[in-house]
Amino acid sequence: MKYNINDPEAVAIREKMEQLKQFGDVEIYDTISIEEVRKFEDENNIKLPEDYVWFITNVANGCKGDGFYDYRYSCGFRPLERTYFSREYIDDDDCNGEEKFSLDISSTGCTGSYGIFLKGEHYGEISDDDEGLAYYHPKRVHGFKEWYNTLLDETLLGYDVSVFDERISGKIEDILDSYRQNHDIFYIRSVQWKTGWDCSKNVITEKCKNDIYEVFVNETIHENKEVLFFILVKVDYPDIFRVIEQIFIPENYESIAFTLDTKNGIYFNNSRHLEKGIVENTERYYPMIIKMLDYLSENENEYFRYAFRIAVMNPEFKASHIEEISNRDFVMKHISGLYNDELKKRTEPYYTQAKK
Q1: Residue 27 host element (H or E)
Q2: Which of 43, 162, 240, 266 has the greatest count of CB atoms below 10 A from its CB?
Q3: DSSP annotation string for 235-274
Q4: Segment (H or E) for 86
Q5: C-alpha angle 296-299-305 in degrees, rounded to nearest 5
Q6: Fold of the CATH domain 8-150
Q7: Across the strands, what pairs with 103?
């Protein structure tokens, strides 16, 4: 049976699953009969949660995206017959290897997976499984049907789903409205996870970027402001230099250097940003980086390496600027550890000297 066309909820979910095919090679499996489910339960001496049973008998018995049963690849999850079991986690690791404590349904990468608890107080909830052990971490969605349906919704919205269960469901604009009423950092973390690493699906509109910036400007809690800064860098806020100026104090130098370097690799060596004209404010930006380098080198702070890479790749950089940075021994130590050919070329002859 393909799916239950007489159940409106089943039809609605199945139609959303069909939309996953816009993201690549997605295979959706036909449903199975209730008799097949009961046989599986009897053979394994388990009882599957009813919402999961409803799903695989009415909507779909699995979904595979780009060759993976991975929730990050177009909402992948295994057909019942290809699932496996994880055992209970106990602090002393004294586990019964035959115990079927959770049903592993979807890969999370490497040895990790998501499962469904089959026993205990968390029966029916989504488990975090790894190397055959089932772990419980509280989630904001409950049970397989709610978990998967919400995952579908956010995937189709274009949100980053790599940390799906660690954030609030819904649109970014609505979460920002909630944050204005209650400055709980969890709301900001949720926006952070939703924006993803590259925003390749154009989730963030210009209006949304400006809304995030408005919240950033009005924020007084330091930790929250740092997260908002990170988000604005991620979404390529048009005037990131204006953002940096508002938090440019020594206490934030580590965060600024790490965020710029981590978001873009080497910020000014990223062709996408060069093409967008992101370097047009480099004359204003470069002196700020030099101040950071002086401060971080004087304190022999390991975050110096992030600021140094950004400075070297800035079009304003001249090799002679290395002489202007305090704590020369510390600077030369970091130059000797450069691995990027372009960085080595730009720091000559200091790189050769440092290696000696």
Answers
A1: strand 26-28
A2: 240
A3: TT-TTHHHHHHHT-SGGGHHHHHHHHHHHHSSGGG-HHHH
A4: strand 84-88
A5: 35
A6: SMI1/KNR4-like (3.40.1580)
A7: 85, 116
pTM above 0.90, yes or no: no
Query: Scanning the structure block, which residue is given the tokens 């290897």?
Result: 97
Each residue's pLDDT tens digit, 75-92: 899 999 999 898 876 544
**Residues forming a β-bridge with 126:** 116
When pLDDT is averaged across residues 177-182 and rounded to a whole number, the result is 87
How far is Cα 174 from Cα 195, in angstroms, rounded to an integer? 14
The three-point CA angle 342-295-243 to 5° equals: 75
On whether the CB atoms of residues 159 and 192 are closer than 8 A, the answer is: no
16 touches 23 (CB < 8 A): no
Q: Which residue has the tokens 């409803």?
A: 54
| CA neighbor of 144 nearest in space, from 42, 244, 71, 46 | 71
Q: What contacts 92, CB < 8 A, 6 or more positions away?
A: none
What does the pLDDT average to over 232-255? 87
Q: Any idea of the CA torsion for 100, 102, 105, 110, to the nearest 10 degrees?
A: -90
Mean pLDDT of 339-345: 81
Domain ranges, ordered by start, for the chain: 8-150, 167-238, 240-356
Tokens of 90: 């106990």
* Six-digit token string for 136: 């419980």
Tokens describing residue 290: 């030099």
* Those residues with Cβ within 8 angstroms of residue 19's Cβ, 6 or more apart along the chain or in another chain: 156
| Residue 124: per-residue pLDDT | 93
